[in-house]
């Protein structure tokens, strides 16, 4: 072969190798690495044992029935362990493969699902929600009377998708929530006077439904009839905004929330065990619920896990409802840390994740408390508010009602997850988070 032809070919081949390596560096590891040399990643067996000791102490002191934790740095899994019993009555040990009720960890997945629609050019984060759902209110309640009647004024601006993702929409907030409570009380009184049986829905009997609607659509259409509790963007009011966001995912995508989330996030990332509903035989995979009351562990109702095997699987909401094992959600966290890719699939662009996790969307003073900041779907940590001093000021996170928590820390190139399944519990996560970060202290 002509040497003059050989050199350009070799040069091109070298460029291709460099580009592939650079692409990998940009996207991060596409699978977790469990064959880890602890010293090479900056930790040691002694530090691992220190984490073991802490988590085992929670169990030994009967502060928790069980706990599961996961830590990965640069995709290298240095910690994935469970302690205690998933079922104390039957003496069944907890394992990292157990299912947990994720509650509000659902919100981040719903938010990412919406942002995939943004990347497709179907919607903009600053669009008024009324562009896609004309029924949403553009008025703020100013007075509520004892009979449920009320006064309103025009809102300072429309509810946008930024407001939904940052919980600053004003939906069901303040006096607006009072209207609905008064109406429910009056309706219950009428039914009682007629001798009708009062139906008291238990949140979680439909994987989190708080009303009697069979579909999220019905609940959101009913909600939109009420005025806002404050001007959009002027305050923080948690929870229901993500349900409206979920309904918008359905309207814009033309698919059910469950189908769209599975197709765009869960299946591509390999989160095969995360879902709203399961077949009946999966019920045994769930960690049982206990409460920590007056220094003792007590069994609690398992309504939420039992609801996941319901025959009527029509109600799926975006604010809560997902369940699954810790490693499944760790894949979602690693995707975000990687800048939007994992398992060989691109979910979001790096610039989209930057938009979600680097810009505080709340006023400086808000109901979240001193230093509280929120982006699009995530709390943003900063020098004034974070769960442990070792956490970077640029990390972001959220968690679930029963004690599932995670942190995504780009500066440290690590993800940390801590899972409990308890309605009443101590604030133990910060102790673990500190110890997890100390795994890599220099």
How is this structure best summarized?
The chain is an alpha+beta fold and 442 residues long. It folds into 2 domains: 32-106 and 256-440, DD-peptidase/beta-lactamase superfamily (Beta-lactamase), CATH 3.40.710; 115-253, no CATH class.
- Cα gyration radius (Å): 24 Å
Topology as a string of helices (H) and strands (E): HHEEEEHEEHHHHHEEHEHEEHEEEEH
Strand line-up in the sheet with most strands: 3-2-1-15-14-13-12
Strand-residue proportion:
5-15%
Most strands sheet: 7 strands, antiparallel
How far apart the termini lie comes to 53 Å
Number of extended strands: 15
Q: Can you tell me the CATH class of the largest domain?
A: Alpha Beta
What is the share of helical residues?
Answer: 25-40%
Report the average pLDDT across residues. Answer: 91
User: Helix- and strand-based class?
Assistant: alpha+beta
| CATH fold-level label of the largest domain | Beta-lactamase
Describe the structure.
The chain has 442 residues and is of the alpha+beta class. It has two domains: 32-106 and 256-440, DD-peptidase/beta-lactamase superfamily (Beta-lactamase, 3-Layer(aba) Sandwich); 115-253, no CATH class. It is 34% helix and 15% strand. It has a seven-stranded antiparallel beta sheet, sandwiched between helices. The protein has a two-stranded antiparallel ribbon with strand order 4-9. It has a two-stranded antiparallel sheet with strand order 5-6. A hairpin with a 4-residue loop joins strand 2 (76-87) and strand 3. Helix 2 runs antiparallel to helix 12 (429-437), helix 3 packs parallel to helix 7 and helix 3 (105-119) crosses helix 8 (257-269). The protein is globular and about 65 Å long. The protein starts with a helix and ends in a 5-residue tail after the last helix. Mean pLDDT is 91; it is low at 6-25 and 198-210. This is Serine hydrolase domain-containing protein. Residues 51-423 form the Beta-lactamase-related domain.
